[in-house]
Design brief:
single chain; 782 residues; alpha+beta; 33 strands
Length: 782
């Protein structure tokens, strides 16, 4: 094969369109992934990935590569890629590298200069019988043999995934995005995608094996010669077309070569029940048959006839359950479907006598099985294991894989036994999961390989399961028992039943269609007419607490949290003024000065005078509220380092709010209007100078202290009773902090000088604290 050179006519067809349209992108272009430097993005339309042209580095230096950067997470299976790295075939595109970048997988393969066969078909190119026979078909089957021998099913063979190599010697298989690792199994059951127009009948049921890939080869050959697939119909969807393909006969054009027609018919033979019988002509063609066809041997085309007479005569007729079976395979299948009757035949020695006449070793197996099954606690399982030993090559006895190895069963009886065990153990969640995930594939498996009741039994079991809220019940009786117990337990608290009925009203109504449940639901629904206490307030020592928080309205007061206010021992609800409200959050500030704390406790140096002379570092608002420019040196005692911030976000937060209430308070970025590098993230904070001006009208800035704050040292104006309260903005000097005067009627009374004690103005001990916070309304509502 490696010596075959493509002729110049065929080479010119391949070279009509080359992949060379490049579009620059900023995200991956220019990055280095492993040993591959991403040069540019190719203008190739792909629904699953962005395609990039790469240059190799290190051991790959001097070569060009194609990188597929997948959009979907977990798009390719690492176990398949690892196996492909071990495939050394000129007919399979090697995996040069793979990995993840920013949470998405990428795969690197060689960059081929010529176009994929699908692009050539789109341009009107068609391939002759000679071109197919001398180069294209031999390349494809050798490539498929290499991946099959490695334990991989391609599952998406089509012209788009076939491309010539640069030397024009081979056709190369590419794109293993949905391929599956079969492990030691001969086929798998999975719901992964495929291209419907090329899918075999069993693939539409989720069953894949090597013959499924060869079916796709037959459709591909038809398309390469004609330019269209056998079942193309623009009036219906591709999925519907593929389903029709499972029952339709392929119609060949008049000019379709007879020899090529035999190949397509052999590859697209629909019945796979004889796939492991090498001597049976009624089986779908695979590698051996195609290789013989290429060598011009007369390979019989499979038909719908019975097994050949030579095969049938090797097995004496056996009458089982009223039916005469003329082949070992048919008998084994019947025994698998009715193991209870088969155990009787084995126990009477009938099976042993028959198989001694066929094969002495098989007769000995029957003889040993008589004793094993007789003394086994699970006779059905023991009998099925015996059948597996008796005829391990038959399709009905092959291990079946669900998904990517999620479940594995040796046969239908083992699967049925597993379903029975789940039902006995009450594992309803897994029963329902197994049915919901695999019902389509299982139905197809039962129709073609396993007995039909393997599907119907699971379907019946899953259909009886009732979901009620987050609970599952085995059947109507179990659900009815639950409702009866519920009424018994809540006999003395009937309002609980009222709430239960109202919460599940629609579900209960739907369940009343079940005769067994209707009477108990009717009795339960009578509790919905009970009157409920309208008082939703809880009182403690004369203080009332609403059962649920009243959602905030701008300019109104709400109660949230609690803190000592009249004396030091009893906490009372805190009143908050709502400054701003959005759909998701609200800004609150306490109505009263709740405590008295210093802004900063340590001694500070640099005091100049009691009030601070005007210098380069201060400016203040005039009576109209206009702000002049102001800058501060780095040495300022800022909100970021002050003790007041630490106290609010630790001691105050824990004292004033329960654990649940603390979850409602949003941690937010607190902005330093004068120096963005001093921004902090806090849950409780003081308002800034700019925020006071933004949220308060003239004459509304006054704040009164609580009795508790007065006892802690807060000042109070003798006339209005107002107090001074801290802001987080710096003052005009290094150790000053802004606050609101106790008698401030307008904005001009916001102090930019700060107040200075004998040891430093930021540690004055008579300013009150008026906390502010952002409330997460989504948490409150939930």
């Amino acid at each position: 094969m490696s010596e075959t050179k493509i002729n110049s006519s065929l080479s010119s067809k391949f070279k009509k369109t080359q992949v060379n349209s490049v579009q620059k992108l900023p995200d991956i272009t220019g990055h280095t992934l492993g040993e591959f430097s991403v040069d540019s993005r190719l203008d190739i339309v792909s629904g699953e990935a962005d395609i990039y042209l790469c240059s190799g580095t290190g051991s790959h230096s001097g070569k060009k590569f194609l990188l597929k950067y997948y959009r979907r997470e977990n798009a390719v299976k690492p176990d398949v890629l690892e196996k492909l790295k071990g495939v050394n075939s000129p007919f399979v595109a090697p995996v040069e590298g793979f990995g993840e970048y920013h949470g998405h997988q990428y795969v690197v393969r060689p960059y081929y200069q010529m176009s994929a066969l699908s692009e050539l078909l789109a341009e009107g190119t068609r391939f002759s019988e000679e071109e197919l026979k001398t180069l294209i078909i031999p390349s494809i089957i050798e490539g498929m043999k290499a991946v099959h021998d490695a334990g991989i099913l391609h599952k998406d063979l089509k012209p788009a995934n076939l491309i010539p190599d640069d030397a024009g010697e081979h056709i190369v298989l590419i794109d293993f995005g949905i391929s599956t690792d079969t492990g030691k199994n001969t086929f798998v059951v999975t719901q992964t995608g495929m291209t419907p127009l090329y899918a075999a009948p069993e693939a539409m049921q989720g069953i894949f094996h090597r013959e499924t890939d060869y079916y796709a080869l037959g459709i591909t050959i038809f398309e390469l010669f004609t330019g269209f697939t056998p079942f193309q119909n623009p009036g219906i969807s591709p999925e519907e077309v593929a389903k029709l393909a499972s029952i339709s006969k392929i119609e060949f054009p008049e000019n379709f070569p007879e020899d090529l027609k035999k190949l397509v018919l052999g590859l697209t033979y629909k019945d796979i029940s004889h796939r492991n019988e090498k001597d049976n002509p009624n089986r779908r063609w695979g590698y051996d048959e195609v290789r013989r066809w290429l060598n011009d041997e007369d390979v019989p085309v499979p038909s719908s006839g019975e097994i050949s007479e030579t095969v049938s005569k090797a097995f004496p007729p056996y009458r089982f359950n009223g039916v005469d079976y003329l082949s070992e395979k048919e008998l084994i299948s019947a025994l698998m479907k009715n193991p209870e009757q088969g155990i009787k035949d084995l126990g009477r020695g009938v099976l042993t006598h028959h198989f001694f006449a066929v094969d002495e070793k098989k007769g000995q197996l029957c003889e040993m099985a008589e004793k094993l099954v007789e003394h086994s606690s699970d006779k059905v399982r023991a009998f099925v294991n015996f059948l597996c030993d008796l005829a391990p090559s038959y399709y009905a006895l092959e291990a079946v894989v669900f998904g990517d190895g999620e479940y594995k069963f040796q046969n239908a009886a083992e699967f049925t036994s597993y379903v029975d065990r789940l039902e006995r153990e009450g594992n309803l969640y897994e029963l329902r999961y197994l049915f919901n995930r695999y019902r389509i594939a299982l139905k197809g498996l039962a129709a073609e390989i396993w007995p039909a009741d393997t599907y119907s039994k699971l379907e019946k079991t899953a259909a009886a399961i009732i979901q009620f809220g987050d609970r599952l019940f085995k059947d109507d009786a179990a659900m009815g028992e639950y409702l009866e117990n519920l009424m018994t337990v809540n006999e003395k608290t009937p309002l609980n039943l009222r709430h239960f009925v109202l919460e599940h009203k629609s579900t209960l109504e739907s369940l009343k269609s079940r005769d067994l449940l209707r009477p108990v639901i009717d009795r339960l629904e009578k509790f919905s007419s009970l009157d409920e206490n309208a008082n939703d307030v809880i009182s403690v020592a004369g203080v009332e607490y609403p059962r649920t928080m009243i959602l905030p309205t701008k300019g109104k007061y709400i109660k949230f949290g609690s803190y000592p206010q009249n004396n030091g021992s009893v906490k009372e609800p805190i009143e908050w003024l709502v400054l701003e409200v959005s759909d998701k959050e609200a800004l609150l500030v306490s109505r009263y000065g709740l405590d008295c704390k210093r802004y900063y406790y340590d001694d500070v140096d640099g005091a100049v005078d009691d009030y601070g002379a005007v210098d380069d570092y201060w400016a203040f608002d005039d009576v109209d509220g206009a702000v002049e420019s102001r800058s501060y040196p780095d040495e300022y005692i800022t909100w970021k380092v002050c003790d007041l911030r630490k106290w609010l976000n630790n001691d105050f937060l824990k004292t004033a709010f329960s654990e649940e209430e603390r979850q409602w308070i949003k941690e937010t970025e607190v902005v330093d209007d004068d120096n963005q590098y001093n921004n902090t993230r806090d849950r409780v904070f003081c308002l800034s100078l700019e925020e006071v001006k933004r949220y308060f009208k003239r004459g509304e800035i006054e704040c009164k202290p609580t009795e508790f704050a007065l006892k802690r040292g807060a000042s109070r104006h003798p006339v209005g009773g107002w107090c001074c309260w801290w802001l987080r903005s710096p003052g005009c000097r290094q150790y000053y902090a802004s606050y609101v005067y106790e008698d401030s009627p307008v904005y001009s009374d916001i102090d930019h000088f700060g107040f200075k004690t004998s040891t430093g103005h930021v540690n004055n001990d008579f300013n009150a604290v008026r906390p502010a916070l952002w409330l997460n309304l989504e948490s409150v509502i939930s």
